[in-house]
Amino acid sequence: MPRSSSPVPRQAAAPNHYENFPVASWLCPPRLRPPIAALYAFARTADDIADEGDTAAPERLALLQAYGEDLAAVVRGQAPSARWPQVFGPLRHAIAEFSLPESLLADLLDAFRQDVRWTQAARRYADMAELLDYCRRSANPVGRLLLHLAGLGDARSLAQSDAICSALQLINFWQDLSVDLPRGRHYLPLADCAAFGLGPGDFQSFAPLGPARPPAPALALVAQQVQAARALMREGAPLVHRMPGRMGHELRLVVQGGLLILDRIEARGFDSFSHRPTVRKWDAPRLLWRAFRM
Question: What are the entry keywords (predicted)?
Answer without folding.
Answer: Transferase
